[in-house]
Design a protein that fits this description.
By secondary structure, the chain is an alpha/beta fold. It is built from 14 helices and 8 strands. The structure holds N6-methyladenosine-5'-monophosphate (6MZ).
Length: about 350
């Protein structure tokens, strides 16, 4: 199979995206427009010289991502930019044959522009509903993010906000994401917040073990319900104290799906290269993994490209890729009826696709 035909297959494949941050998932075109607009509004051409994406072979340590995110937050700081990001991103995923998207974002309060937390979420919802009214072929759900740099009080307020929208967004807001710089703070402090979110019926997607945070990861996994793990890069490494594989055992036993963001991990140097990505470890154990982009703008990728990279790194066949994509439906935070609708959609496409049993390198 040529690379081109594999690439085409990955594009044609109906897909699910479960781990993507709004402020890092822009297309080049949207970014350009929003940077130009902001430079004009603030009469500051300096914005145009900021580095806002990682290009090909541009591997930077994870801290550089967080520096870059602070620049992005300065650009995307009003209702117009949040609407534009959401609206464009939904169309771009639909164009990549993504049929179900969970978009996550941290609400911002920016007094200068009138942005408040509720305005932020309402703006995202407005864009989702506008796309639905246009009959864009994609189902969209929203997760509200807790930024671990902002402390437990803010996290509690975020859960209250998400709880309100859980009951007042026609089912679009479905859960909570826990993210932010993994080198800052201790996830253990947030355990009561996660427990209360779970009790309220919010789904929980938690960034865990993106770097070797063994202690906090163990505490969270032992004491909290967790619906999905973001990254989980170091879950299968032995713990530094006794060399046991306790994290790995808990995750396997609880069958917690892992959101694998290969390109992001390679570009932020938390993983050496695609071939050494932990996807392989979990996949070989028949453990649920979902291929995701993390930030298709910042890391310059697409969901189709993540399938291509996984196929090439681990010699996955078309059937393997199909199964990965189809199984991802099980790990969405959608209702049972939406899951059934998605399975039927995959079924319609399947007969039209050439799903040979051969590996991509054969
Ligand atoms: C942890 C990350 C992340 O919420 O403003 N974020 N958190 N690890 C990562 N891996 C590299 N990538 C993004 O999107 C940007 C925010 O998402 C989180 C960070 O908190 C970042 O500020 P939103 O839409």
């Amino acid at each position: 199979m040529t690379r081109q035909s594999l690439k085409e297959f990955c594009y044609q494949l109906p897909k699910v995206e479960l781990h993507t941050h709004l402020n890092t998932s822009f297309s080049d075109k949207t970014l350009q427009e929003l940077v130009d607009r902001k430079a004009k509004l603030d009469d500051n051409s300096e914005y145009r010289s900021w580095k806002l994406t990682f290009t090909e072979n541009d591997n930077c340590p994870i801290d550089e991502s967080f520096t870059l995110f602070t620049f992005l937050h300065k650009i995307f700081n009003d209702e117009y930019s949040i609407y534009k990001l959401t609206y464009d991103i939904i169309h771009e995923y639909a164009a990549d044959n993504v049929k179900y998207l969970e978009l996550r974002s941290t609400p911002k309060d920016v007094p200068e522009t009138g942005l408040t937390w509720p305005v932020y979420v309402d703006t995202m919802l407005r864009a989702v509903r506008d796309c639905r009214a246009e009959e864009v072929d994609i189902v969209v759900r929203i997760l509200i993010s807790i930024d671990r740099r902002k402390g437990v009080d803010v996290a509690r307020q975020t859960v209250s906000l998400a709880d309100r929208y859980l009951h007042d967004s026609d089912g679009i807001v479905v859960g909570i994401d826990f993210s932010g710089d993994p080198q800052v703070g201790d996830a253990t402090d947030y355990i009561p917040v996660f427990q209360s979110a779970h009790e309220k019926g919010l789904k929980l997607a938690l960034h865990l073990a993106e770097i070797p945070n063994f202690e906090e990861t163990l505490n969270v996994l032992k004491q909290c319900h967790c619906d999905r793990i973001g990254h989980g890069t170091c879950l299968n490494q032995p713990s530094p104290g006794d060399g046991r594989k306790e994290l790995e055992e808990i995750v396997l036993q609880k069958k917690i799906p892992i959101e694998a963001c290969m390109t992001s991990n390679v570009k932020t140097k938390t993983v050496r290269d695609y071939e050494s990505h932990h996807l392989d470890f979990w996949y070989k154990r028949n453990h649920p993994v979902v291929l995701c982009t993390d930030g298709k703008g910042v890391y310059q990728t697409t969901v189709s490209n993540e399938y291509l990279q996984a196929a090439e790194a681990f010699n996955l066949s078309r059937q393997n890729l199909w199964d990965l994509s189809f199984d991802s439906i099980n790990h969405t935070f959608a209702s049972d009826s939406v899951k059934s609708m998605l399975r039927a959609k995959w079924g319609e496409v399947k007969s039209k696709m050439d799903i040979s049993p051969y590996g991509c390198n054969s």
